[in-house]
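1st attempt posting a full record on here, be nice pls
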Amino acid sequence: TTHPQGDFANAYKKLQQQRGKIESKLSDHFHDRYILVDGKACYQVGGSIKDAGTKAMTIGRKEDETKDEILKVVEGVWLSAKAV
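the predicted structure (as tokens):
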């Protein structure tokens, strides 16, 4: 699906109200989930975002070459990903 659903839909709407325009896209290129902030910060989410707050999970900030490589790959995938 290309439309936010369930808890994600509610959180996405709330975040947009608080922060303004937030872009979210879907792609099957990655297994892991990443949160990118302004093309500078990169966080890897170890579990399903839908379970955040209900189960133990890890969100780790990526640094240095790892961050740069992830941002580079995401930039290429972003162009063909489906907008949410």
